Amino acid sequence: MERQQNRRKHGNTEQAIMNAAEEMFLEKGYKLTTTTMIAEKAGVTHAMLHYYFRTKEQIFLKVLDKALAELQAALQPVMKKDAPFWETLEKGITAHFDFLAKYPRLPQFLFDTIRFNPEVTGRIQERIIDPSRRIIAFHRRIIQEEADSGRIRQVDPDQLLMDIGSLSVSTVMLLQTARKMIPGLGGGMSDGFLESRKKEIIELIRSRLYGNLQ
Amino acid sequence: MERQQNRRKHGNTEQAIMNAAEEMFLEKGYKLTTTTMIAEKAGVTHAMLHYYFRTKEQIFLKVLDKALAELQAALQPVMKKDAPFWETLEKGITAHFDFLAKYPRLPQFLFDTIRFNPEVTGRIQERIIDPSRRIIAFHRRIIQEEADSGRIRQVDPDQLLMDIGSLSVSTVMLLQTARKMIPGLGGGMSDGFLESRKKEIIELIRSRLYGNLQ
DNA sequence: GGCTGGATTAACAGAATTGTTAAACAAAAA
DNA sequence: TTTTTGTTTAACAATTCTGTTAATCCAGCC
């Protein structure tokens, strides 16, 4: 068999380090990830990491920015109302949930970063929190409209959005944690869990809005 | 003014170290807490920590055990059914929520420990997960009874318990995180948030169970 | 074939961390 | 007062981690 080129040139190593760093930082956060661990996972010496990215902080910021960009991109399409209220909301919940299921380590990573790297909270603030405000305002408005017209029960829109957000977030965080405690929990095994959980969350919110009416 | 005794004797130092350790470990987890930080917070040299507790791991286990004991104690009384179903359940939700509001750093601490100290998951398993099974079984039974008799809507009891658990847990975790991002969020400011959040959670569960009926 | 320049490694420096130990100390017992 | 006992400190060893650097390596170009 022809062996892989031991000596990679050009972007190859850089990309390998970047991928390794992404995985490690998402898994363990900034402080508990060592440059040596990243290098090992990428199959190079830790000096390479410093050669390409100068410092641990630099590469961390790149990983963070990438994560924030993905999250930001996922937030955009949630703000279209091209269908009746409930359909729009249900689609929003589903999109939010599916995104988290695809990037299940993102919530914990953000929690970690806010906890232990307060110096970068600004980035999170401006790229996630602030854009979220517009989305929240949008939903707040359409929920309020719907409530005022009596088509759904009276409910504080902020509370409802927190309900949706935290139910989805805790689902993926719980699953990640369960995987640590029950090693036998592979990827396929948890698909059923995620699916039934998503159904339950939607039904929960639907009951909250329409329970006493229809 | 008479000055504090610089040289404390007997249990004084040990207790001071224990308190400092508890605060630091709950705040930052095992690895990110250094014995020097604990000692500093307790106002002694880090050698004292080793004198009284031998190793960092020893004192961590004491802190963990204390936290688990508190959680375990809080789990016990949730299993009495001395009132109609909904009142019992509502009391259970309230107790669970209030406990978490009192120890808001406990969830993150357990998440941390499971993530980064897999060697102690056994302790968590036997003292929390296993006892929880009985409670879950109990609630599963009374929910199932209630559903079968048609007094509440058909619902998967496990899903409902996960709803309750994760809504409360995410509330306190979110609040803790918000405190990091918005420094102006003092203790009193958040009482209102917790109170309205608790009401919403109860209403959410109530709707899920009774929405289409009453 | 030999040169050049980027890529890679090994070795090192400096800081931080856990744990040990010998010496200093303070208070109660003798 | 002297001794004893438990407490505290300062200094040290061993390890780990980040970041630097000088030497080496290799591919393409002359």
Structural class of chain A: mainly alpha
Question: What about the largest sheet of chain A?
Answer: none
Q: How many structural domains can be distinguished in the coordinates of chain A?
A: 2
User: Low-confidence segments of chain A, ≥5 residues, pLDDT <50?
Assistant: 1-7
Q: What is the multimeric organization of the chains shown?
A: homodimer
Radius of gyration of chain A: 21 Å
Give a nutshell description of this structure.
2 copies of one chain form a homodimer. Chain A has 214 residues and is mostly helical.
Describe the fold and architecture.
The structure is a homodimer of 214-residue chains. In chain A, helix 5 packs antiparallel against helix 9 (187-210). The longest helix of chain A has 28 residues, at 121-148. Chain A starts with 10 loop residues before the first helix and ends with a helix. The first copy, chain A, is mainly alpha-helical and 214 residues long. Helices cover 75% and strands 0% of the residues of chain A. Chain A has helices spanning 11-28, 35-42, 46-53, 56-75, 85-102, 106-116, 121-148, 157-181, 187-210. The first copy, chain A, folds into 2 domains: 1-54, Orthogonal Bundle (Arc Repressor Mutant, subunit A); 56-213, Orthogonal Bundle (Tetracycline Repressor, domain 2), CATH 1.10.357. Chain A binds a DNA duplex (30 and 30 nucleotides) through helix 3.
